[in-house]
Amino acid sequence: MTTKLVTSKKRAQTGGWRVNPLTAAVFFDGEGCVLIHEQARSMGPCYNLSVDICQSLPDSELLEEFQASWGGSIYSYKRGEKCRGGFGWRITGKQAAAFMLDIAPYVRVKKEQVELALRFAEHLGEYPLASLARLKNKDDVLIARIHSERKQMRIEMRNLKAPLKRGD
């Protein structure tokens, strides 16, 4: 797969990775989630990629290592009175795409989701939001096709996450 995405290889060359991609992939397979978001805008829907990894531990130390390696932000959450909650790490856009590219060779359980996320990120790179704004009222057919393709990828991602029925 050829891609124009920028990876975090510069970090690896300079010793900047605090969590290696294999470890990150294993953790992502168990605790991670990749999403394609849709947000309404005046010129049509806007789509974005995000990755979340959540853990039910009393501190965010491990997730801070992910943040140091790939960027993003850390947040805390509380599930309810009987559940202690925990911490999450979120990255979006190009940072999420770079993370997906770095872990792609090692992911096993969520391989299809990662491949789709990378395909989606390439699509965003080919037609960034700024270029769509310039096309407004000039090539409505192309804009409609681009939005349709992104919406289809969003649906495909959602379907990949659908729980399997018993017996499947």
Rough shape? elongated
CATH architecture: Roll
Q: Order of strands across the biggest sheet?
A: 1-2-4-3
**CATH homologous superfamily caption:** Homing endonucleases
Structural overview:
The chain is α+β, with helices and mostly antiparallel strands. It has one domain: Endonuclease I-creI (Roll), CATH 3.10.28. Helices cover about 50% and strands about 20% of the residues. It has 7 helices and 4 strands, in the order H-H-E-E-H-E-E-H-H-H-H. It has a 4-stranded antiparallel β-sheet. A hairpin with an 8-residue loop joins strand 3 and strand 4. Helix 5 runs antiparallel to helix 7. The two termini are about 30 Å apart. The N terminus is likely disordered.
Give the helix/strand layout.
Layout lengths: L8 H5 L7 H11 E8 L6 E10 L5 H10 L2 E5 L8 E7 H11 L7 H16 L2 H7 L4 H22 L7
Antiparallel strand pairs: 1-2, 2-4, 3-4
Helix pairs in contact: 4-5, 5-7
In short:
Helices cover 49% and strands 18% of the residues. By secondary structure, the protein is α+β, with helices and mostly antiparallel strands.
Descriptive labels:
single chain; 168 residues; alpha+beta; Endonuclease I-creI; 7 helices; 4 strands; 49% helix; 18% strand; elongated
